[in-house]
Amino acid sequence: MKAGSKLEQALVEGRFAVTSEIGPPKSVDAEVVRRKARLLRDHALAANITDNPTGVVRMASIACGLMALQEGMEPIVQVTCRDRNRMAIQSDLLGAAAMGIKNVLCLTGDHPSLGNHPQSKPVFDLDSLQLTQMVRNMRDEKQFQNGEELNPEPRLFVGAVENPFGHPLQFRSVRLAKKVNAGADFIQTQLIFNIKRFREWMQEVRDRGIHERVYILAGVGPIRSAGAARFMRDRVPGMDVPEEVVQRMAGVERNEARKEGIKICVETIQELREMEGIAGIHIMALEWEEAVGEIVETAGLKPLPMRLAASVSPER
Amino acid sequence: MIVGEQKPLDEIRDQISPFKKVLILGCGTCVTVCFAGGEKEVGVMASTLRMAGAVSGQEKEFLEATVKRQCEWEFLDQVAEQIASVDAVLSLGCGIGVQAIAERFPKVRVYPGLNTSFLGMPVEQGVWSARCAACGDCVLGRFAGVCPIVRCSKSLLNGPCGGSHDGVCEISPDIPCGWQLIYDRLEVLGLLDTLEEIVPPKDWSAGMGRGGRSIVREDLKI
Ligand code: SF4
Ligand code: SF4
Question: Would you call B219 helix, strand, or coil by DSSP?
């Protein structure tokens, strides 16, 4: 075991893993994180804690990760290259690991011009590949990025992401291979609505044998309404929402839309489960955490491996 | 070349409002070519300011001059007398020109009339585009002659981010994705396999973020 997280354990043992996501609050309201952690902890093995997603300032992902941990939900702390340079990231990761965080997810990060402080200076000292490699080397080579010795080292299970729908399409499996070579232990993908394209990508991934070297968790999420489907299709960079999906959402009564969204999500999970090389599912409910339990149960993803001992949080 | 554009007129007037006699100083090199601060623009700026002054009833005098290159002291020396005769200089040169004036004439008040935007080139009539950030450690050789530092909004070195779509960058449909450009060129050159290598973190210390950088060539010193 590299880090000994529950997530790593499940994947190593070949159990089909479910992860989910917690979006931190835009304030100091810790209860937001705690509530989401309690909602998700019986349905997912671990939860991503997003790092200022879409470039909007929110509570720090490491702090939220610790709160989730106290609630018995194992965190996957997201780290983007947008706001911190290699020094700040390393120092934060030392702190995170020392406090008991065992999973990180390395991302490029959305550009600040899309967020709520568009005038800020974008950092991007590293890119996501270099970040992945740096974290792997901190753990396996016991080295800081500059080559200095790091002892004792942070034991972190290293994740990265890939978007099979980004362009140029032909480069997407190459980029995945690069991330695995850089040291990714697991991969979470972008939300999948275009199954056909995802199949093509997975075929390339298998042709390259990458699925045997990394655990791939396929990203899914429930759509809430036809409007949300259109918004994702037209406005969210890197999303591929095919017309059929928009039509399906538009074709049901308003009050049935959420049900339909969950149904599409469950069907997608069932298709993904059958694909060779998929080690688990990553459910992004985007402020609709209540849906995750239903999705997991309807898709037959239970039982999950045991929850973390909640004993870390005596006062609750 | 250095590409700049004129500041909004209100900002320019604001900067020079305390002064009665102002020299508007153009530059005959980069900013002439990008139609922002050459002889012609100096003329237009002077008449605009004169008119604005007349309308508001202020008594102002504007002198005009343009040197070959504001970023070299020997050219500035040619207008030393005019500079000495005014209360302030409004430079239509790039930021380097403004600083060259400040260094050469320590007692002169000098104000920028342009925003120096980037190092770039004209790509069509009336359109200029950034090409270099003077990072001090050029990696163009690796990326088929397309600069990832400037042309990718996130200066990525290991391929496009997940937001690249239909050749444009995630931040705006008007900005080409630098990585799509790199990819296309590598493809034409039959070099796509070079993208599989992991490019290590860049040494940013060669460029931005260090004040007072200079190059010393002993062989050229006298
Ligand atoms: S790599 Fe650096 S020096 Fe070369 S073009 Fe880009 S910014 Fe300029
Ligand atoms: S879309 Fe292209 S240019 Fe924009 S940040 Fe991503 S890789 Fe760079």
Answer: helix
